[in-house]
Design a protein that fits this description.
Layout: H1 4-7, E1 12-15, E2 18-26, E3 36-43, E4 48-55, H2 58-71, H3 77-94
């Protein structure tokens, strides 16, 4: 799996020394093999939290990234994963 961090294809916005990045990688499961999937990375120079494979919908993950950036979420993987799950559930219930 090659991530966007390796390819230099990230979108990052600094906030009080925190970096919020969109990560692009290839799905490895049989259902979506070789399809682009998107995740999020938050780092503050000391800690890093990454959640890969949130969705294959880039726009959806970019919107989530903006919400997380505006909220100033710290690099905590458990919190980041919970926010991503809540966001996806919210979108699914609106459909």
């Amino acid at each position: 799996m090659q991530s966007a961090l390796d390819q230099g294809e990230i979108s990052a916005v600094g906030f009080l020394q925190r970096q919020y990045a969109l990560i692009v990688s290839e799905c490895q499961s049989e259902e979506c093999e070789n399809q682009c999937v998107y995740g999020i990375c938050i780092t503050d120079g000391e800690e890093c939290a990454v959640v890969l494979d949130i969705s294959s919908d880039r726009e959806l993950v970019e919107k989530l990234l903006q919400k997380i950036r505006h909220a100033g979420v710290a690099p905590d993987r458990a919190i980041l994963l919970e926010l991503a799950e809540d966001y996806l559930e919210e979108l699914h219930s609106l459909s």
